[in-house]
Amino acid sequence: MNPQLAGRLAKLDIHGMRDLVLHLPLRYEDETRVTAIEVARAGFPAQVEGEVLSCEVQLRPRRQLVARIADASGSLVARWLNFYPSQQKQLTVGSRVRLFGEVRGGFFGDEMVHPRVKPVAAGEGLPEALTPVYPTTAGVGQATLRKLIDRALKTVPLDDLLPEPIRRQLDLPGFAEAIRSLHHPAPDADAYSLENRETPGWRRIKFEELLVQQLSLRRAYNARRARGAIALAPRGRLPRALVEALPFALTGAQARAGAEIAADLACAHPMQRLLQGDVGSGKTIVAALAMLQAAENGWQSVLMAPTEILAEQHYRKLAAWLAPLGLEVAWLSGSRKKREREAELERLKSGELLLAVGTHALIEDPVTLPRLALAVVDEQHRFGVRQRLALRDKGEHGQHPHMLMMSATPIPRTLAMTHYADLDVSVLDELPPGRTPILTKLVSEARRKEVVERVRAACQGGRQAYWVCPLIEESEALQLKTAVETYEALAAALPELKVGLVHGRLKPAEKSATMAAFSAGELQVLVATTVIEVGVDVPNASLMVIEHAERFGLAQLHQLRGRVGRGSAESVCILIYAQPLSETGRARLKVIYEHTDGFAIAREDLRIRGPGEFVGARQSGLPLLRYADLERDAELIKAARELAERLLTEAPVVADRLMARWLGGREALLRA
Ligand code: ADP
Ligand code: MG
């Protein structure tokens, strides 16, 4: 194969013959029939056959190849905006061609734009089965792919790797049979089921794909679990003391998750646990209890958060909770003065300080944590693999720390079962008592004045309000400008109130001073960009206004709304939107308006966006699912998960061969 073609195929993630076999059609086209040009209808794909009446390169309005084809019933125009000289040759006047494409009503009558062309002899037979259409990339035509795939189908062994009883139990066809049925559908194949990936062949392939994903994730999990870690005995004195000192009782969910984590920490292999809990479900205290388990065994633990604001808030909370227990917490962020930091770094290095909270400053070089036994990562999806690995390698005792990942972006169950199968999961599925549900209102931009009045009323009633400025993804400068203007306009409209502003460009010290003032009630209105998105906790704030809400993602809206409803007061979230709404914008607003449960919102989000973006932030190198669908194939996911466990213990060689078939060498990419 020439290197240029090989390079292009690599873009399709095809690195060898084996990958070609698993490069399955995106859809199918029906070329088994020829439609008379006269009958071909606008808006539908069709195949027509006729003689080329004319063919020329036109230069206006832009360079394009235009041909007219006629059959006994009529004629149509075919048009290519990008074309090769070879294409032009296929269309010499008087030659006979078949065109496949969608018919559109054009200025000069019916036309096809970019149809596929096939030169034919008069009376040449038609294909008997549906024609596969493959995912492709620039410079690799369908014909080339088909030829390559057919060759691969002849040379690559298609032996069945699934144990026979499993196949029978799940009623799946053999591998070879399944693969062939997808690349070369039988003449009587049901086009609808094939398109919808519902045939037995598709089921078999989807199952195998899911199985391989489970195998690789479980294997990564087992490999990490095989390493040593510091066993932290659950003595319980410090955690108990903290729980007793809290002004509230733990929820059942918190107690349950806490117990799961405590049991993990007591083991001599590293914990790999995801603590999932909706906004406001109280993850911080669960993390604090785990950190205390490390501390009372004389080992260090850290809590890393993605933003300065959030890290500082964690620090304040932990420091206040732990001071009465006689424990000090180090605070590591980019904003601290060098001298202050140095003293703390020294005490962390000596092992005298056992607890630290910080931003990614924690993983930077001068920080040494020789006795690190537990690392907690808040909003884990905000960190990349590399950052988590750097944290993992901070200890100097040759063993991995226990890892507790926290996420307030609820992950739908099917997604957790697939893409997060390498983690144990604890879920906080219960909010602390006494929260009043948040009322969500959708308000068009024209009624902005009324919203300002609501802010005034809420603050006069002793509450506080957030005003979130529009997200402007294209330009940070513009976003900043808008934030400043919004701030000035609100300050002018509400002269009797103290209004503050936070945005990403402020110096960390300024940001934290503003946040502290809002927290203390010295500011009543906080105008903010999305820097407040994660984790900020000011229970007295009861009104959240989000401008241009249609521009925000669902997870973001849910996070932002979760900043209120944290106290006992009736809370309101006002989503201001601008017309006209795009279809997805409208869909998102509808979801956020109708649902308050994070898991329900995540499920809808998954439906609207697909899993790619969801897990994209995980930066994992994890192969995404190409064929299986989390929503529709939930049944297969369960079966794949169970079989993966069994294969790994009972038939590891089969597991190896399955992974080799699907992943080639790519398994090495799986994050450690
Ligand atoms: P999140 O899960 O979003 O990180 P936090 O840990 O910030 O939630 O907790 C949200 C708020 O709820 C905090 O003010 C916290 O002190 C409070 N809280 C946590 N657990 C409980 C509980 N069991 N009862 C009452 N309030 C609680
Ligand atoms: Mg939090």
What would your notes on this structure say?
Belongs to the helicase family. RecG subfamily. This protein is α/β, with parallel strands linked by helices. Among the domains are: 33-126, OB fold (Dihydrolipoamide Acetyltransferase, E2P) (Beta Barrel), CATH 2.40.50.140; 237-428, Rossmann fold (3-Layer(aba) Sandwich); 438-595, Rossmann fold (3-Layer(aba) Sandwich). The chain is 40% helix and 18% strand. The chain has 24 helices and 21 strands. It has a seven-stranded parallel sheet, with helices on both faces. Strand 11, helix 13 and strand 12 (355-358) form a beta-alpha-beta unit. It is globular. Bound molecules: adenosine-5'-diphosphate and magnesium ion. Adenosine-5'-diphosphate (ADP) is lined by residues 248, 250-251, 254, 277, 279-285, 408, 432, 535, 537, 539, 566.
The CATH homologous superfamily name of the domain at 237-428 equals: P-loop containing nucleotide triphosphate hydrolases
Helix count, per DSSP?
Answer: 24
Q: Structural class, please?
A: alpha/beta
The molecules bound to the chains, other than polymers, are: adenosine-5'-diphosphate, magnesium ion
EC number: 5.6.2.4
Keywords: ATP-binding, DNA damage, DNA recombination, DNA repair, DNA-binding, Helicase, Hydrolase, Isomerase, Nucleotide-binding
Protein name: ATP-dependent DNA helicase RecG
GO molecular function, one term: 3'-5' DNA helicase activity
